[in-house]
Amino acid sequence: MTRHVLIDQMTWTDYDERVRTENPLVILPVGSLEQHGPHTPLGTDTIIPTAISTAAAERVGAMVAPPIAYGYKSQARTGGGNHFAGTTSLDGETLIHMTRDIIKEFARHGVRNMVVMDSHYENEMFLIEGIDLALRELRADGNEDMKIVKIRYFEFTSDETMGIVFPNGFPGWPLEHAGVMTTSVMLHLHPELVQMDRVPDHPPVQYPPYDVFPADPATGSPSGVLASARGASAEKGKRLFDEYVAGISKALSVEFKLGARTPEARASTGTVRQ
Ligand code: MN
Question: d(Cα 177, Cα 199) in Å, to the nearest integer?
Fold first, then answer.
């Protein structure tokens, strides 16, 4: 039997055997199809968590489900807004129910340990609601054993790495949209998909401390970038990616009592930023 990490590349019989014999951890990446400036692709929020999930799964012996590749509506102050061409979003109710349904299906197979690996700022409470509804319905059906960890991978950035990646000051995660962090990680993972000559070079976009509906695109970022990615590099991307994979692998090993499969995973003790 070939040992795969990606569930959609397994046969149902191999998958079934692993679920029944290994009590495996299943990681569900969640992203978006959303503009990420003129320089990084629409799938950035899905490509990055899927790559992190796959690398972490290889370390700890987990499996990775196909990602939810669409997210909740992009908001002006965290993603540039939902008016851009290409940005393709779900109603909150749809995302809640997709999350709930996928968790309940894995539970039906016998999976009892799951991770929801979120990458898109606007998804968070809808994922939490989907997780909560799934657990409530599973409990009502007599399944008390499902445990789920929800991760936003960027929260695993250490203070030391923050200083290296953002030497001129950190704009904050909400404004880090198509900025230095995501662009650097994409340069590390897929340099062929990044066009650094198109990076907008402007100060962080200024928003008032409130939201206006309907949103007025004229008050936001015309490029879709909220803080310039001019300082991005593949070297920074490798540092960030490796730190995320190591920190998340360690956290999963602790939460799910998994045996880390590599010395690096066992040795990693990266500081977790809260
Ligand atoms: Mn996003």
Answer: 12
